[in-house]
Write a structure and sequence with these properties.
The protein is an alpha/beta fold. The chain folds into five domains: 155 residues, MutS, DNA mismatch repair protein, Chain A, domain 3; 105 residues, MutS, DNA mismatch repair protein, Chain A, domain 3 (Orthogonal Bundle); 200 residues, Rossmann fold, CATH 3.40.50; 193 residues, no CATH class; 76 residues, Ribosomal Protein S8, Chain: A, domain 1, CATH 3.30.1370. It has 22 helices and 23 strands. Strands 10-11-12-8-13-14 form a six-stranded mixed sheet, with helices on both faces. A five-stranded antiparallel sheet has the order 18-17-16-15-19. Strand 17 and strand 18 form a beta hairpin. The two termini are 83 Å apart.
Length: 787
């Protein structure tokens, strides 16, 4: 457990207050008041992961519904001991239950959407008690204003109906007095009012005897008396009785509801605890979002790396960020130099960021930051002069240091501010060196500030120790608050004095007292500062160039990826187009071949010239053009000289033929079987001559007397007739040597489609069948593959 002194010294309570301001309920604020850093590695990792999950949820969804949550634990405790809860208290309980129900539904919706993963919130969602029944019981009896409803019970409704009826009767009687002929004379005002919960009228003092009854009040002047006439006394008594009955029934209802709360008290305590935990997680995330904080990495290796870290309590626009890293090779840092206001801030930044991370709060640093889990953090910071204990500044510091030396171990982070200050400089410097040696030697991680020049060389002869300083701008006579690790601080007294106008001879005279060694050390430090600035400048330029290079590389990779995707799309588009062209050509060729078969089988039919020409033209139109193949064919045809009578292969059809005549410069008349076709030279391939074969030209073709189409339309057919037609069509298609046909049955109710597909499933010559593609007719057509 981290010491209270360190928490107070490093002002962790102020950070806690800032985080608490982002809570949406008193539950979260009460839990945040108890927030302290954890020293358990697994718990710290979980706390930071929960907070990071909250950050992700806020980034994706913008907000989380947490309205209507109240701290109802005190109500539940009072119900547990038999107390009666008020309507307002019961409504707070119902509102809290309703808020938990809405939150549960919200987490379920986020989890189902899969935008982000929220395992920690889902874990708490599962643990939220379901008290919907209690919520419904309360809102069925009490409205949002805390009024018990008439519908809360049958008896209450009856009482209130009687009460309203009785009040109306009293008002009617009193209105008769008000509207009477002497009313304007005897009454101060024509109104009915209430006194002591009884209906009365305002009567002038001198006419009090005209009405009789009971005087309940009088005006401040005594001129008006508020009288309850005898005629309404009994009616008012009845109203009073009914109101007492009403109050008794209301108390009975509230006690019954309080008993229900008592039975659910344990669940209510759990509900409040979980809602408070969720509010705390979201408050941490909102704080991080508002202050540009990040989730740091966590280790157990005593390694601290803060990238561009700011002090959490300084204004975000004014704080100077610093990168601080130590704990691997360097386990001690000594910040030297004059009191410029930046050393203590650096010390507190390290300590406070570590405390925040161990409490699961995001830290004001950039991504890539990392902190270690320490069992203890000790801090001796600031002027702690104690008047009550009659202790000087030095004594007060030494009391803290003695306490630290008695408690720290090798898993501690120790922070010393102005170590050894407040006493003789020589003795103070010696004490500071000895204390640093002790803490560093026992393995703790230590950071200290000092203005003693003797400690400037402390890090040069001790392994694992580094010097540092806060940069000072002599030109503007002000610190830049930029931490320079590896460079000890140097006194700027001579430079500052010179800039402020101190005569040169006085400065030179003063320098003569500092000694040669001191002057050389100061010069060395100044040179180190110049080298450090140059290195940082070069590093910044290198980083900028690297970032730009990575950006260019990423852009080029993106462009290459887009080109590859575009190439794939173009290739796929070309393949689809080629496939369509080939499919169309095949379909047309099949139609032509089928027609030729029909003509061949029809012995009574004589093939006429115009029919052959028509078939030839259709074959030419069906020929798909391939520019690449065409070019290759043109190259091949140039390598030979075609002559009449040569055997050739028509590439587009894959058929052999004989050259008859050259009809133009680049076209030949080719005999293919019974067909004569005009073919371009680029579509011809020369074949070596084989044995002479006599070519018989058929002029009579036998075939079927009917033409079988590639598709059968059954839309509008009755089921039995459609099956008969489909059976005959499949037989005809098989006889025509068709490999694939289509049956159009439409979508409709689906009965015809199911019947056709059942028939196809049982047919011996059907190899396979499927629904049509989007361009073929979709589910309105079945494509059949024949054996």
């Amino acid at each position: 457990m981290i010491s209270k002194h360190a928490l107070k010294t490093l002002e962790f309570d102020k950070v806690r207050e800032q985080v608490a301001s982002y809570c949406t309920s008193s539950l979260g604020k009460s839990q945040l008041d108890l927030l302290e850093p954890s020293t358990d590695f697994i718990e710290v990792v979980r706390l930071l992961d929960e907070m990071d999950e909250g950050l992700s949820l806020l980034r994706v969804r913008g907000n989380v519904p947490m309205g209507g949550v109240f701290d109802v634990r005190i109500h539940a405790k009072r119900a547990q001991i038999g107390g009666m809860l008020s309507p307002a208290e019961l409504m707070e309980i119902a509102s809290t239950i309703r808020a938990s129900r809405i939150l549960r539904q919200f987490f379920e919706a986020v989890d189902e959407s899969e935008d982000i993963q929220i395992p920690y919130f889902m874990e708490r969602k599962q643990a939220l008690p379901i008290l919907t029944a209690l919520e419904h019981e309360i809102i069925a009896c009490i409205d949002e204003n805390g009024t018990v409803l008439d519908s809360a019970s049958t008896k209450l409704r009856t009482i209130r109906q009687q009460l309203r009826s009785q009040e109306n009767r009293v008002r009617e009687k009193l209105e008769g007095y008000i509207r009477g002929k002497n009313a304007s004379k005897m009454l101060s005002d024509s109104i009915i009012t209430l006194r002591n919960d009884r209906f009365v009228i305002p009567v002038k003092q001198e006419y009090r005897g005209n009405y009789g009854g009971i005087i309940h009040d009088q005006s401040s002047s005594g001129q008006t008396l508020f009288i309850e006439p005898d005629a309404v006394v009994q009616a008012n008594n009845e109203i009073r009785r009914l109101k007492m009955n009403e109050q008794e029934e209301i108390e009975r209802i509230l006690l019954a509801l309080s008993l229900e709360v008592q039975n659910s008290a344990h669940d209510l305590f759990n509900l409040v605890q979980i809602l408070g935990e969720i509010d705390v997680i979201l408050a941490k995330a909102k704080y991080g979002e508002a202050n540009k904080c990040t989730k740091p990495g966590v280790n157990e290796k005593k390694h601290i790396r803060l990238v561009k870290a700011r002090h959490p309590l300084l204004n975000i626009e004014e704080a100077v960020p610093n990168t601080i890293e130590f704990g691997i090779d360097i386990t001690a840092i000594v910040i030297t130099g004059p009191n410029t206001g930046g050393k203590t801030v650096t010390l507190k930044t390290v300590g406070l960021c570590t405390l925040m991370a161990q409490a699961g709060v995001p830290i004001p640093a950039l991504d890539g930051s990392e902190i270690s889990i320490f069992n203890q953090i000790f801090a001796d910071i600031g002027d702690e002069q104690s008047i009550e204990q009659s202790l000087s500044t030095f004594s007060s510091h030494m009391v803290n240091i003695v306490d630290i030396l008695s408690k720290f171990d090798d898993q501690s982070l120790v922070l010393f501010d102005e170590l050894g200050a407040g006493t003789d400089p020589q003795e103070g410097a010696a004490l500071a060196i000895s204390i640093l040696d002790e803490v560093h030697g026992r393995g703790a991680l230590v950071m200290a500030t000092t203005h003693y020049p003797e400690l400037k060389a402390y890090g040069y002869n001790r392994p694992g120790v580094a010097n540092a300083s806060v940069e000072f701008d002599v030109e503007s006579l002000s610190p830049t608050y930029k931490l320079l690790i590896g460079v000890p601080g140097r006194s700027n007294a001579f430079e500052i004095s010179k800039r402020l106008g101190l005569p040169e001879h006085i400065i030179k005279h003063a320098q003569s007292f500092t000694g040669t060694d001191r002057h050389e050390v100061e010069s060395m430090i100044a040179s180190l500062e110049v080298s450090r600035k140059e290195s940082e400048k070069n590093a910044e330029q290198s980083t900028a160039i690297r970032i730009e290079s990575e950006s260019i590389k990423e852009d080029l990779s993106t462009q290459l990826r887009q080109l590859e995707e575009q190439k794939d799309k173009i290739e796929q588009k070309a393949k689809d187009k080629a496939r369509k062209v080939v499919d169309d050509a095949k379909r047309q060729a099949e139609e032509i071949i089928e027609e030729l078969r029909r003509m061949q089988k029809n012995v009574q039919h004589v093939i006429k010239d115009h029919e052959l020409i028509d078939v030839r033209k259709r074959l030419e139109k069906a020929t798909p053009e391939n520019p690449v193949l065409k070019k290759q064919q043109q190259i091949k045809v140039r390598e030979m000289t075609l002559t009449k009578g040569d055997e050739v292969k028509v590439l587009s059809y894959g058929q052999k033929g004989t050259l008859l005549d050259k009809v133009s410069n680049d076209e030949w008349s080719v005999q293919i079987g019974i067909l004569k076709m005009k073919v371009h030279e680029s579509d011809l391939e020369y074949l070596k001559p084989e044995k002479q074969q006599q070519t018989v030209v058929m002029t009579h073709v036998k075939g079927r007397d009917t033409y079988v189409k590639l598709e059968l339309d059954l839309r509008g057919e009755r089921y039995e007739a459609a099956i008969l037609r489909a059976e005959k069509y499949i037989d005809d298609a098989v006889l025509s040597n068709y490999h694939q046909v289509s049956i159009i049955h439409g979508k409709g109710t689906g009965a015809l489609r199911q019947g056709i597909q059942q028939f196809l499933k049982n047919h011996s010559r059907v190899k396979n069948f499927r629904f049509g593609e989007a361009g073929e007719g979709g589910h309105g057509i079945t494509v059949v593959e024949l054996k």
